[in-house]
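The passage that follows is intended for readers who have already worked through the single-chain material. We present the inputs for a multi-component assembly, then the predicted structure in tokenized form, and finally a short commentary. You are encouraged to pause after the input and sketch how you expect the pieces to fit together before reading on.
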Amino acid sequence: MLRFIIRRILGFIPVLLGVVIFTFFMARAIPGGPFDFVGDRSLPPSVVKNLEAKYHLDWSQGKQFVSYMIGDEMKIGSFTIYDLDPSAPAYSYGVLRGDLGPSFRYRGQTVNDIISQTFPLSAQLGIMAIILGLIIGIPAGIISALKQNTWLDYSATFVAVLGVSIPSLVMAPLLIWIFSVKLGWFPAATWGAKPPYFQNMFLTPGFDWGNYFMHAVMPVFALGTGLSASFARLMRASLLQVIREDYIRTARAKGLHERAVIYSHALKNSLIPVVTIIGPMFAGLITGTLVIEQIFGLNGMGKHFVQSITNRDYAVVLGTILIYTILLVFSNLLVDLMYGWLDPRIRFD
Amino acid sequence: MAVAELPAAGQLARKPRSLMSDSINRLKKNKLAIISIVFLVVVVFSAFVLAPYITTGDFADQDLMQNNAVPAWMVPLMPEGAENYARISTDFILGADDLGRDLWTRTVYGARISLLVAIVASTVSLLIGTVYGLVSGYVGGMVDTVMMRIVDFLYGFPFLIVVILLQTYFKAVARRGVGSGFGQSLVALNASMGGMLFLFIAIGMVNWIGMARIARGQVLSVRRKEYVEAAKAVGAPDTRIIFRHILPNIVGPLIVVETLAIPGYIFLEAFLSFIGLGVDAPTPSWGIMISEAAPGIRTYPNQLLPPAIALTLTTLAFNFMGDGLRDAFDPRLKE
Amino acid sequence: MFSKRTLLLVVVIAMLAAVAAQCGAAPTPETVTVVQTVVVTKEVKGETVTVVETVEKEVVVTKEVQVEVAPATRYDGKVTLNLNLGTEPPTLDPALATDTTSVNLDRNLFVGLTEFDPVTGDVSPMLATDWSVSDDGLTWTFNLRNDIPWVHYDPATGETVQVTDGDGNPRFVNAYDVEYGAKRTINPETASDYAYVTYIIKNAMEINTGEDADGNPTELTLDDVGVKALDESTVQFTLENPAGYFPAIAGMWILRPQPQWTIEQYGERWIEAGLIDTNGPYVLDEWIHGGSMRLVKNPLWINADNVQIEVIDLLMIQEASTAFALYENNELDTTGVPSPELDRVKADPVLSEQLRIAPVPCTYYYGFVNTKPPFDDVRVRRAFSAAIDRQGLVDNVLKGGQIPATSFAPPGIFGAPEPGTVGLGYDPEYAKAQLQDFLDEKGMTLDEFNSTYDIVLGHNTSEGHARIAAAIQQMWKDNLGTEVRVENQEWKVYLKTIKKNTPIEDEFSIYRLGWCADYPDENNWVYEVFNSEAGSNRVRRNCADPTCEETTGPSKFDELTAAAGIEQDPQKRIEMYKEAEDILAREEAAYAPIYHYTSVGVTKPWLTRNYPTLGGADWYNWKIDVEAKNAAMQ
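Having made your guess, compare it with the prediction:
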């Protein structure tokens, strides 16, 4: 088991390296640079030169890549191991030392700053949406499967299908219109932008949890309904299959209560497809869903994936993709480990 | 579906009442699925064949003087106060958008892009993913390790972002052409498809990997089953075991996953349109029509309804069809 | 240094843990820890070498976390303005700001030598009480007031205190701060995007580019820049050329006084809340990047008695329809109206009362590529320009009360002619005649014209531009019978395509662009954009070859616009610019102006605000009827 995990983690290295290399050179291959223009006007070459010199874009791409990976200099005390640019102080320390570099667009902010500012909200939204999806989806799927081909099953299926069929582009403005403008039940936006802030939320006595969740309701709902529908349908299909397996028949035959059969034998096994789909979904959701974040005015990571490419903000492109990739490979690993737990017949050999 | 045909072809001679005909019989009994299939056939047919005959003009034709026109019958659907601003017009069946383009025409033609994405992407990913997962899961050992290592490598790639990068790149070089012959021809092909090529490639690339993993996971839990052991014991060839014994037992969840993914594909197209990387204007797609109309939902909800209803109905149909197929092709679901 | 940098893995795990454990990494208003690198120049006696080394500094602005007093209560009962910025401001640093959001914030945080009268748009005194220019028009001397304090605001306590220097003396904004600010902007190491606007100042260009006129490395240093503080209250600028509009430039954000001590202490992060020192009507209380920002009134501001609004809560919501929903919920006091909602807002009895269309000093135009056939012929350009029904476009497509444009600079800019008085308006008969004239000379039919020339109208990817392009494409088709293809490109690529030196076959025939005022003078418009010698000249006027390597020598327009920049007599300048505008839009028809921008917004009845002719918002002049607002919030 431990060997399996270590082997898998070592396997991440080529993936991450592949992603970084691809993104690094791909981003720079797209025509247009970060500093060609300001607003509607082109910058004089001299100004562009200053900017490119400042951010080392005048270096060869190979040198830039080395600098991006390991930093442009390394010193121990006064001893210099290497220094790509002896005439200037250290500019970046490199990804391997945890420095994702500066943002070209948001001058004075680093990619580490941007990610730490936006990731918490995206993560909260994503995790809550998945939890909501599971809370609604799994029981709905179970009921559907157990009452297969009854009106309960049909209506659950219908609602679930409807849930996946409404795009969030429609759902989100609709929610704002009905529940915020018309009924005034929930705030339309400003989750995390107005008090209560997330800072130390678990440590602050008297943290306004009510207000916090009021802000969260609509975005989480908009994101979570689609998920719950997916989970419900997956769960139904999977459970239907599992309850026809021999070991379930055996369990029933030995006189176990139907409830016990389902909950202690069938359920765990039938979660496999759900878990499989949650893995990559998890990484995608907690790093931000652009549409939901944009419509509900949330300061999440989602927008940076797209904006940074539009702005040719290379370090932000790389930084966000890297974080996403790391989360993705780890959640995939988690999924594999879950397989073993959910179905003891699966072994890591 | 296509996958399930394989065993039937090889076995027909020996076994007249094949799994296939069994399945089709079961499918025929499922009214909802049949209705859905008929509906989808009608939609596909009208989008790709009938479109010029059932619409009044080109989807790009605009009449600025008729912008935001609302047909009289849709007025009850409008928000209160709409009578003060809505331009009531009898010229359009479903009204016109903000450039005075006929919404009915755009909805009909918009089906082309959305359906193309759904059909191409799901077929590609289902085919490649299932076969890959089957082989990997069934053979096991070194082969499995290597195949899964490849999948892991690709799985780690954040493909949505790779798609965005690639789309940005190809849209950027579209006007200038790229140096090498291969790149040039790719760009040309992409342009001839209205900028859809990389969308297809991308969706295919992302989703077969997911399918492969699900298929493998299913195989792993099935392959130690008695009936597989039994088949092995009587010396059945591997292909027969895979396609005859394993595939029918795992195909259900795969189809469900795939049909569940179809709205995702259609939405992905919408998302890319939303960020300006989708199909080139003025070509309509349901996705782009929805993203154009959604911000005006409170003023002109009538513009959102046609593409949204079309999309929802189509997705419903794909889902019920998926359910029907699953029930039909899973031999253990026989009542 | 390296030990302080966590491995990426640890960062990620720590972030996950932070989320799991307490869901928090939003910038803390209480404690600010800055780890920062500064360059220290050491001169050791007896050695000729200057040693540059990196020193690590840790500045901790520590404040007790005051749990018993929730931070929100500090703002309760204050006169509060709620606004939406629509985006995260890329910076607050006056030397680096380029976008309207950042510039507008700087306007409320920092004073300039001059400012613009919100009504007339004229240059009026601010930090400088008066100024004079030498007879040769090259030396400008500004006399400054000396009572504007530099203030530091402490977000933890909410106290604003005057900054003191090393000896404990209070700091007032003085001429040295102006000199420092100007030199910092010009310094190539600052890498300011807008540094080129300062090139009018003597030696600024040579120092910023690092090259002299012949392209050799410069020998000048920052000390040679033509800006000098003569004493605490006098600053002198020396220019390269005479420029009557210099007082307008002197008030721009890039030349505002900057706090040297703070910038040197904190480096690029000096603009963060709790670190920044400012001198304007407001101070920065909180900046949650990407989420929200709060400004509070500076009680030490010279004119504080007249500033009524005490707290400004700024949101950064991109989606206009969401911001509009917040407005309807009384959570914003003013906001823009998203275009799909315009019809409803105009018809709504309540909202239509709150609607206000304000001019924005920007112009939307279509540039013809003057070297690309058939647009190398002036008659074709005139035909295409006169065939655009600008009023129809505004009424049916834009709907925002935009002003149809026939010349380049919008009203409010010094020297701008009244719209409609010069240039070409909508005249389909004239347009047809011009095109026919061209066709007759070439012996072509219209069909042959359409098949010979592949006319492509380019715009950057955006729904708004696509709508306009589609509408104008149709007007050309209806009025001229010409077939024009519309193509769009992503912004960065688009700007590369429409560069002056793009190979002509890759270039569009017609491109769209907008231009907005940096400073309210015609020089910023016709000269900087269209002059074939000195401007960006994307339309390729006056070119000897398709990619405009050489020009055919200055034309009348070029000479006029160059001379008008140097001319000292304002009345003469107005006349010269009027003539230049007419030549550009009618005689040469080098481009087709389409409309001058407006902003369509709604404002709650309790907010009294102005709409400066030059755009932006001076929040310190706004007033709120607190009772009415509170009543509505109930």
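Commentary: The first strand of chain C starts at residue 32 and ends at 43. The interface with chain B takes residues 319-321, 338, 340-344, 346-348, 392, 396-397, 461-463, 466-467, 470-471, 474, 487-490, 492-493, 497, 506 of chain C (CB under 8 Å). How closely did your sketch match?
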